[in-house]
Amino acid sequence: MNYEEQYRDKLTTAEEAVKIVKSGDWVDYSWCVNHPFALDKALAARKDELEDVKVHGSTCLWMPEICKAEDAGEHFTWVAWHTTGIDRKIFKKGMGYFQPMRYSELPRFYRDGAEQVDVLMMQVPPMDRFGNFSFSVSPSHLAQLCAKAKHIIVEINENLPRTCGLYDTELHISRVDAIVEGPNPPLPQMTVPEPTAIDRKIASHILPLIPDGACLQLGIGGMPNAVGEMIAQSDLKDLGIHTEMYIDAFVEIAKAGKITGRCKTTDKGRQVFGMAAGTDKLYQYLDGNPEIMGAPVDYTNDVRVISSNDNFISINNAIDIDLFSQVNAESAGIRHISGTGGQLDFVMGAYLSQGGKSFICLSSSYKDKNGKLQSRILPTLQQGSICTTPRSTVHYIVTEYGIADMKGRNTWQRAESLIELAHPDFRDELIRQAESMGIWRNSNRR
Fold this sequence. Notes:
This protein is of the alpha/beta class and about 450 residues long. Helices cover about 25% and strands about 20% of the residues. The strands form 6 sheets. The protein has an 8-stranded parallel beta sheet with strand order 1-10-8-6-2-3-4-5. The radius of gyration is 23 Å and the shape is globular.
């Protein structure tokens, strides 16, 4: 039987396909942009027939249909590997939970049997002539997820880009149980706010420390976008890309002619990513682009692979940091915000790279909901806040007031450097707190 015949034999409706789900099952929605659309809607329609269905997903860019009903939590539980504002809304309804991890470990969770997968549902681009479905913008961990799943249902979305890959970046039709031709919804647009003056100031401290031929990883948000914007307008050349998440900023840098990858030690000439999300500009750029190489996240985020590229530059955000230089990038006290992701892996990998540097960036302050100015540099992390990157691995910390290297610094040197990066309104109080904690010397600058 040829591939087209197999396709026709497995083609069905979303309503028929989701009948395979039964109460008590673990269902996986794959990842981010690849979350199912028609299948999700059909599963939601079966709500009253089901109970205790656990659904794994991550980084929601639209509200799943299974989570919309007022009594949805009586039938479905959403379990997220990484969260957006939408995931947090699901948690607030009392029907969702976060599953902590270093993102690089996720394929192993499936491979080693830690995760149960009764039914996998995901959006994919149309099948190619060899019978393969590309994992598109989410190669991440999907090959190991498919290997573990008892049943696999794919939903075709013609708008998803087909990306080139290293290995484990596609699924053959012989392993698919059912195919649904979805309504081809437009892809979600993950826009970021225009960089602020503070974002640009922070970026200006980093840019001089990036050499020609550097290999880049950028996080998400206005500040990494500001760095990308400044790189695109700079005189830098022969840059390479090896990143967890491919974002719009990389497209701008590439279109400015800054990316060749010729200086990369590993995957020379290729822009390597584990997942991608952005605007149509990004999706169109990725589609069939031979310079792009999708890869499993246990490759993209492997500290050994990261460090194998010389002059690796890692740039990520933080929520706050304490005077011991512990970085919180995922919660505000006990209120969950995002997740560990790959920050720790890239901080370590960049520092181990020959000539590499990692930068943790944050504005020195923010205004709370009452309009009161609050410091992001704290004496200690708030009770319940998560230490995403421990003090032993931190390299550069950057705010709008400057940049400080934490390597080789003792506790009072770290405290002094961080207080210099704090908003001036909080420096005297931070000094008093540092004194009370025994990490300030009388000879220190005030």
